[in-house]
């Protein structure tokens, strides 16, 4: 079985086995979407030491082409996705990112377990701009 097949098989198995309190945990290649109470957290593994975090008060994300980042090749390194109670962990060879489903907080750790950033969370305040619904967002670590 090729390395890519093993990753795909593991991701499919994780997606089928892991479920969340407000919906289903979704693992798709190197993207993990975690439903939390009141919002959704998405983790995208760009490289073993780079994991992009997106949060949305809705169950969907609006993906737009970045004006600041050149398109990258997909990460080829295998990742591990586990869930223990309310904690979902995404682990690469360099990082572990932990999402608390009850609070939607995010924490980053080095491979050896040393904390890098903890209790990261976003707050969303609905507003209307020029007749369009939007959110004012505050992010803190």
Poorly predicted residue ranges: 1-22
- Main sheet summary: 6 strands, antiparallel
What percent strand? over 45%
Number of helices: 1
Structure in words:
The protein is mostly beta strands. It has one helix and ten strands; from the N terminus they run αββββββββββ. The protein has one helix at residues 3-17; strands spanning 26-28, 31-36, 39-47, 50-56, 80-84, 87-91, 95-100, 105-110, 115-129, 132-140. Strands 5-6-7-8-9-10 form a six-stranded antiparallel sheet. Strands 1-2-3-4 form a four-stranded antiparallel sheet. The longest helix is centred in the N-terminal third of the chain and has 15 residues, at 3-17. The radius of gyration is 16 Å and the shape is globular. The termini are far apart. The model is unreliable at 1-22 (pLDDT under 50).
Provide key terms for this protein.
141 residues; mainly beta; four-stranded antiparallel β-sheet
Helix and strand topology:
Elements: H1 3-17, E1 26-28, E2 31-36, E3 39-47, E4 50-56, E5 80-84, E6 87-91, E7 95-100, E8 105-110, E9 115-129, E10 132-140
Summarize this, please?
By secondary structure, this protein is mainly beta.
